[in-house]
Design a protein that fits this description.
The chain is of the alpha+beta class and 274 residues long. It folds into 2 domains: 165 residues, Jelly Rolls (Sandwich); 104 residues, Arc Repressor Mutant, subunit A. Helices cover 46% and strands 19% of the residues. It has 12 helices and 10 strands. The longest helix is centred in the C-terminal third of the chain and has 19 residues. The two termini are 17 Å apart.
Length: 274
């Protein structure tokens, strides 16, 4: 299993992956939406551990920053990922797009990849495999993708496909994602995003469908779990880094949020590697 939130500088624009059957990648997207283009094979996409959708060869979908994804390869699958900063859409592309009134916010939506865009992606696949290096080149290819999308797809389909970018709440979500690791509690996070605590809680629940306290606990637990499993830092170092008042507090947090103490998590991971 692999987390797709961390990539190199060049790969934050485009990433080329061929993954075997049953392989999984999962996690939250840290900063920006990304587009997944399935060139061959098929994948199962589970969102927020609830909804499951199938994406087939020659289809694409946009993953959103505030949702958790578990993507499983139904068969060996080849896909390209395009990482797109939210601000890039606002330069000139979405001024005339509006979501249809009947559109359900946050509902999964995929589109077929048209033949001309498949040809574009095939050539891009070659560039990535041959390690063409200038960052500016891949930025230009992303701009080319924008032209192709807006030329070959209707406004209604594009608006539904880009719903996370069109959302009035997207900037709030982005600010939260950029700042939550710096905050010890809900009050500090509210201050970082320039809201009163009560106003922040109301806005957060509307955007994330969860209380900020529960959400922050889940994010903290995920990061702590990743640190323990990675095995680079000692358990005490992790406890200090995440500002637990004592090791006992740290152990209790892991037990309640992850179902096991830090030493138990470490031991289980060690057995898996043997």
């Amino acid at each position: 299993m692999e987390n797709f939130g961390e990539t190199s500088k060049r790969q934050r624009i485009w990433e080329n992956l061929i993954l075997p059957k049953d392989y999984q990648i999962d996690g939250y997207l840290s900063f920006n939406p990304v587009i997944f283009f399935v060139l061959s094979g098929s994948i199962s996409v589970k969102i927020n551990s609830v909804e499951t959708h199938t994406v087939l060869s020659n289809e694409m979908f946009m993953a959103q920053i505030d949702q958790s994804y578990e993507i499983t390869m139904i068969q060996q699958t080849h896909f390209l990922i395009c990482y797109i900063p939210i601000e890039a859409w606002y330069e000139k592309w979405i001024d005339n797009l509006t979501l249809p009134e009947e559109n359900e916010s946050g509902k999964f939506f995929k589109l077929p990849v048209k033949k001309v865009i498949m040809r574009f992606l095939s050539l891009l696949d070659l560039y990535l495999r041959e390690s063409v290096s200038p960052l500016q080149f891949f930025e230009l290819k992303r701009q080319e993708l924008f032209y192709l999308l807006f030329f070959y797809y209707g406004e209604n389909d594009l608006a539904r496909f880009l719903q996370s970018v069109l959302s009035k709440d997207i900037q709030f979500k982005k600010i939260v994602m950029n700042n939550y690791l710096r905050a010890k509690n809900v009050q500090e996070l509210a201050k970082l995003v320039n809201y009163s605590t009560s106003g922040f809680i109301k806005k957060f629940q509307k955007c994330f469908n969860e209380s900020p306290y529960k959400w922050m606990q889940k994010q903290k637990a995920k990061h702590v779990s990743d640190e323990i499993i990675r095995g680079v830092k000692s358990l005490q170092e992790i406890a200090n880094e995440y500002k637990f008042s004592s090791y006992q507090h740290f152990s209790g947090f892991c037990k309640s949020q992850l179902g096991s103490t830090p030493t138990e998590i470490l031991a289980k991971n060690h057995l898996k590697r043997q």
